[in-house]
Structure formats: C-alpha cells, structure tokens
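Hi U.,

Before I forget, here's the chain from the pilot set. I'm dumping it here mostly so it's searchable later in email.
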Amino acid sequence: MAKIQIGVIGGGVCDNKTEMIAEEIGRELAMRGVILICGGLGGVMEACARGAKRQGGNTIGVLPGNSREEANRYIDFQIVTNMGHARNAIVVASSDALIAVGGEYGTLSEIALALKMGKPVVIIESKWVIEGAIRSSDPVEAVDLALNAIA
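Structure:
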C-alpha cells in the first residue's frame, strides 16, 4: 500500500510564528510516517520540510522553475516542472490531503484546487475563511484532522 502523502502549502515568505507552526507540522507528519509534499522553496515550504527532515521524514518539492537547485536544502526529491504557479495543481493532485499554513493568493489557489478535486483541506493561521475547509488552531490537531479526513 502506498504511503500517505500530505501537502503543506503556504507563503514563500512567512513570519516567525507561521514558520514555527509549519516546522511543527513537518515534524508531526514525519513522526507518523507521512511523506511531505510542498512547493520546495522558502517560507512555509522550507520550515515544514526542515521539521520533517529533523524527524527523519521524507520530503518532496514540486518546483516552479527548471532547476533542481532552486529547492531548499531539506527537500529529498525535487520535481522540476518549469510551470510557475501552475505547479500548484501537481502539489494538490499528488497529495491525499492538504494543510494550509498562512499564505496568500498562491495558497488560496491551491486550497480551491484541492476542494475542487475533493481533497480534504485543513487551514491554520490563515486569513481565508473557506467553505469546505477544516479550521485548526494547533499544528498537531491540524495533522490529526488531515489524517482523519483521509481515513
């Protein structure tokens, strides 16, 4: 049976609080044997990948450009798309569920794609209020909610 893959989405730049939340989510996913998928760059993506790697987890970065070198140093597997923001569809389609941590319009587009594809979405530290998404205020709870939504 294939391992569960959870997408963690959020801004390429984030504040310290959001970074700490994303890193804790990454750690929690790794502790549960879940593969992390993200956009592979900085901000929330780097923080969650760092958390996962420090806990011994596996990370996949779906990159917008045409070079594997643009991935942050915590990404194990780099998927080069040369698709810019359109790569968001790959992140979503490859995930069993998604956790949105903060973010702006790119994150909003991923949330919309996920809901359109019938994927569970948990949002934490987000300004977006979206029908169909599950709200959380705690990183461990966010992982619990995402995994329970898959089951």
